[in-house]
Design goal:
The protein is α+β, with helices and mostly antiparallel strands and about 190 residues long. The chain contains six helices and six strands. It has one domain: Alpha-D-Glucose-1,6-Bisphosphate, Chain A, domain 4, CATH 3.30.530. The chain is about 45% helix and about 30% strand. Strands 1, 2, 3, 4, 5 and 6 form a six-stranded antiparallel β-sheet that branches. The longest helix is centred in the C-terminal third of the chain and has 31 residues.
Length: about 190
């Protein structure tokens, strides 16, 4: 499900529907799942639909629970009897403020094999994060050193949150697939 670029997720779904029917169903799914389809749709043709929106994911961090908003682009490429979904998470925010940048999300794309690889990634991500906030190299290194003592706890949080992340991605794809493949008789009233 991870895409070739390793920056998001992709899935090709086969169906019995025509290109036009798939297009219609995807537009219905977007209208049903976003507050305003008009606000999120960036491109809308019978071959491709591109949306920019977000989904929520609930993570446990230490003893606290946070609901993060994952900003993403969702692209649907449409052909006869099949369509492809590309979900690219771009950033993560909490209460409207971006947290951790893309580095905070990237850790969920390919699971870390052990705490050593997690530590290496985390320290580098922290350093880049501090630089991105405008800190000098010296101050960034100092802050990384200060926060490096929390790595073991962060790794535990990561291990607990990884299945939550993966489940949210699977549910998004399943929701789309189920909606598109829903039989017309399900709509009879």
């Amino acid at each position: 499900m991870l895409n070739k670029e390793k920056n998001g997720y992709t899935k090709v779904i086969n169906t019995e529907l025509s290109k036009k029917e798939i297009y219609q169903k995807l537009n219905e799914w977007i209208a049903t799942n976003y507050k305003s389809a008009k606000d999120v749709i960036q491109l809308n043709t019978e071959e491709k639909i591109i949306t920019k929106g977000n989904f929520s994911v609930t993570f446990n961090v230490s003893k606290y629970v946070f609901i993060y908003s994952i900003n993403n682009s969702l692209t649907f490429s449409i052909r006869e009897k099949k369509f492809k979904i590309d979900l690219i998470p771009n950033s993560m925010s909490y209460n409207g403020s971006e947290v951790g940048g893309i580095e905070a999300i990237r850790q969920y794309f390919e699971p870390f094999e052990n705490i050593d690889t997690f530590t290496e990634y985390s320290l580098d991500a922290m350093y880049k994060g501090f630089l991105g906030m405008g800190y000098s190299e010296k101050k960034s290194k100092k802050n990384v050193k200060k926060y490096s003592s929390t790595i073991k706890d962060n790794y535990k949080d990561y291990l607990n949150n990884l299945p939550i992340w993966n489940e949210q991605i699977k549910l998004t794809f399943k929701s789309i697939e189920d909606y598109v493949n829903k039989k017309s008789s399900d709509d009879d009233w």
